[in-house]
Amino acid sequence: MKRLSLFALALASLCSAHVTYKVRLSTGSGKVVELSSEQYVAGVLAGESSTFRGEESLKAMAIAARTYAARLRGRHASDGYDFCDATHCQRFELEGSATTRFMRAAAATAGELLWFKGQLAFTPYTRDCGGQTESVQYVWPDVQAPYLSSQADPFCARAGSRTWSWCAPLQQIAAALHASNLNAPNHLSRIVAAETTPSRRILRLQLIGDGAPVLLSASSFRFALGRALGWNTLRSERYAIDNRGGLICFHGTGEGHGVGLCQTGADEMALEGHTYREILAFYYPGAVIAQTAEGFAWTRMSGETVTVFSTNPDRDHDVLRRAEALNKTLAARLHWQTPQVTIRVYPDVAAFRNATGEPGWVAAHASRLTIDLQPSTLLEGRAILTQTLRHELLHIYIERQAAPGLPLWFREGLVEYLAADESSPPHPSTALDADLAQRRDRSRAEAAYAAARARVLALMNRYGEATVFAWLARGLPDEVKNSTASSPPANNK
User: Fold this and answer.
1) Could you give the domains of the chain?
2) In 3-state terms, what secondary structure has residue 377?
3) Treating both helix axes as pointing N-terminal to C-terminal, what angle do 465-474 and 442-463 enclose, rounded to 10 degrees?
4) pTM higher than 0.90, yes or no?
5) Residue-level pLDDT at 321
């Protein structure tokens, strides 16, 4: 069925992309809660940044936390949720902790993310960098992020970066390593630095005892001690080692891995009068703050009523031609003014998903006078490029005429009616706004779109097209109103 092939890729709701996360709480027998993105960000601020004094540093942290979540969503997908509430993901506090201050910081930056060349940036942060941030390659070797290079941090230094010392018997350290299934020589007698990074952090340690020395990564060493002896032991990899017979002491600066935003330095920047944009520009240089994907080398192609932005104009010029023809045809069909429409054709599916928040089975996303489109070659390969463009343009036409509060099923049903392929029969069931708006269950959404079309088609047959279209501007009469009380704001298909 041709219509079903269009559904399979081009389905989307009329509401704005609404991002939610499932978070497993360590309290309450592992209860999983579903939260909006901004609720989650406020909870992360409560867990990770409760001691911040500056409002601008809180905003910077909100964007870093939001971007981190957007990029790593589904980290625990195999367990049925997105994130845990511990530092393995981001420390999150829910009950009584997301105070007005944290909610305000989340709201002030709502939807803002960090982007690098059209992709979500990787935005780790650290408690205290000790006056020098670390390059990402030494902590996450597989991550390509040129904006995460080591640099001096005078703000952290001026704030009085944390210094710390910790001593323990070598026997206790060996037991902690064994508890994490790490090798340690028998009769451990000394630990020395085997390799350091340019930021003066220890990369690998040499453990000396009976037999051949054992090489161990410094991060594995720190986490093993933290798990067994507490996280107030080794606080970073930036330390000197003092062997004293059976006792060993570590004297260090900073806290955490050192990559990305330094919370001590960021808060100092805020207190010195820097904005959250300046803070993020310092710690993630080259990344761009925006609500949708930024950093692409867009080329603008303009027609009479349509403008297309593309990263490959030779490939996407046909999008402009087709959209121009469709826009004029629809205006003549509906006898409405022809809108000036902007279309962005994304170079790949990942960039489209990052920009819109839509799942991969959605081909396009319309908002007001703008259409975001998956790669045209992908849509053309499935013979749905023209259908998708027509559908998105119809959303723009319908939403421009729709009265406030008009039910989602009616608006979507009109689009389905106008875009319908006569070979696909209507689906005789009830269309609910909640089914149309949700993004998690594709089959449920498909059925809801078909049901919305069937309901509007029935109204057309009973009252006539002129009457039904008149309801678009003035609202539904009482006898056909849907029992659903509210409708989300318009988005697309």
Assistant:
1) 2-15+296-480 (3.30.2010.30), 20-158+258-290 (no CATH), 163-253 (no CATH)
2) helix
3) 120
4) no
5) 95
